[in-house]
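User: Hi! Is it possible to get a structure for several chains at once, not just one? Here's what I have:
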Amino acid sequence: MSVTGPAGFRAAGVAAGLKSSGAPDVALVVNDGPVQAAAAVFTTNRVQAAPVQWSRVAVGDGVARAVVLNSGGANACTGPEGFLDTHRTAEHVAEGLGCSAGDVLVCSTGLIGVRLPMDRLLAGADAATAALAGDGGPAAAEAIRTTDSVAKTVHLERAGWSVGGMAKGAGMLAPGLATMLSVLTTDAVVEPATLDAALRHATRLTFDRVDSDGCMSTNDTVLLLASGASGVEVSAAELTEAVTAAAADLARQLVADAEGASHDVAVTVRGAETEQAAVQVARAVTRSNLVKAAVFGNDPNWGRILSAVGTVPVEQAAFEADEVDVSINGVLVCRAGGLGEPRELVDMAAAREVLVEIDLHAGQAEATVWTNDLTHDYVHENSAYST
Amino acid sequence: MSVTGPAGFRAAGVAAGLKSSGAPDVALVVNDGPVQAAAAVFTTNRVQAAPVQWSRVAVGDGVARAVVLNSGGANACTGPEGFLDTHRTAEHVAEGLGCSAGDVLVCSTGLIGVRLPMDRLLAGADAATAALAGDGGPAAAEAIRTTDSVAKTVHLERAGWSVGGMAKGAGMLAPGLATMLSVLTTDAVVEPATLDAALRHATRLTFDRVDSDGCMSTNDTVLLLASGASGVEVSAAELTEAVTAAAADLARQLVADAEGASHDVAVTVRGAETEQAAVQVARAVTRSNLVKAAVFGNDPNWGRILSAVGTVPVEQAAFEADEVDVSINGVLVCRAGGLGEPRELVDMAAAREVLVEIDLHAGQAEATVWTNDLTHDYVHENSAYST
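Assistant: Yes, the chains can be modeled jointly so their relative placement is included. Here is the combined structure:
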């Protein structure tokens, strides 16, 4: 049911001709209330696409009536003209809905450094407005796909209220050009501040821990809209639980559909002094091309894992190199920084999922970061993207 | 002429059966003096191979008589036993040469997490000692190859003295498993402290700026030995110039022979506040898989370059995203963070070398970091290394 699972939302997805394939490329999500609370998390890249610049300001008051999203062009690095394009898009959609442009958020995804064909985009926005429907969530999810092989949606029911969502992205919150966008919706009755806190908690533990290729995009945006249409007031804890679960579901779908990947890799670091230290060590492993290529080769090459762990500066994570254990798919191949069980005992070919567990023996904190293997298809897809 | 170009050195390379291919795998370099000054730079990885642990201590007094190197096994993550293996190797070579074990440095390269076959290694060391010759430099360079398609050597003549050297590595100072090793030699008359300063200056500007796949190894070692055999006293400036030039030559050879690469990419960042800021920005670009895959596709995808630049935290490099210029092979494809010349004007297919120039317009400092493209062959070679 995607973003229209919760009550109070309509959505649509249409083909506006932004994609040369003719596939759907403009989506619209509208919050019919009774309230229009909104929260957002954006890329921390210093190069920010025009829609990110716009939406960051527009969502600043915690209110949004609608989100218009397009694939087929990121509208990033397009200068003041690109920003005006985004502004025009918001104004155009606002006119159609009879609201203020400041209550229309904009998301774009696609190639960087190319202006959007505004005539097509605005006509597409009109068509989407006309097509808005209470069951339009799946169509909206279709329209935001770029290299995604499937649309990603979620709908989690709670007691009288629910959280829905859609996402696009070929692997991570920060997937570079194959930007990640997500719109989450709920019909719970919540304050904007609670909404914001729940979304930040959720993204920190889910989308932020999906690290397909280590590249951070100019367009990444995660939005959470609340309509209050269920009439059910929920606590901050209840909301946070459901939003985090929905985001985790979508994040896992992104990993499973990462560009050209043949393995999903969960790197869990235990025994860290702090959660942040565990995340740093896990990221060092998930960003090692040598580790990722070895996983592609179904090669339990724990030396590369330990070598990646060793690149983390001591001020970021305290541990002794000769105390670190590494397991791959449950086999303790490295014990205390040295040889453990024979690597031949590890079977990596049997399943798409690979579990790397690292114990630093330096504390009680832990964290898991997901990544994918580095494959021929990744190289192929990413060497041919804009050509 | 490799390491035996300068006077006062003998070297050898032999096949000891460490490599299953039967190719040469044990090298020995001996400094016959009259002095035996030595300096070294090692990997900063917290996981350090046994030979790194040994050599770091052994070279601490600024004196070394010999270096024994092996390919066919990194002797990393091999615990106390692995360290004893390294110690035995040094003692064995020292006996053969009639010197102290503390004056024998050891370097190893190959798979992590596997013990070395000591009987073969020690027999190989004996054979290398017997084969030592004043023209043995090229044979030594052959014996340290792993995935290198060619041996890398250099010899730069100066006024009555010279600098020689050899290196192995498939791309960088910190290439993960395909470790980088280099031995530089000179017959100049210099103090150990001068030698050390010259080597640190040289590695900082050369090997440290070669960043083929962003992975840092457990075994990386660069050694500089001085025999004083020319009788020519040189200034610190003269030595630094020659050692830096020799290291730059070898570093360039490493890039040109990087595993599976089809392009060498020089990323030059100008207009930075500090040299360190320029290096940080350049590294963000050279470590982006999306940029590297685009280069493989001969795709002047400057959006990915700008997106990588934008990931550098402001505390590491001051710049405004909308002031950054990017040129690829001389074409200014991105002006002031936005569209510049048409990307179609860029020809990347014509040459192996690709020049990316980034102007931050934030100062006067600059730096260049080299990398390679991300290719199918890189994935292939690195997914099949240990299997």
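Confidence is low (pLDDT under 50) at residues 172-178 of chain B. The longest helix of chain B spans residues 236-256.

User: Great, thank you!
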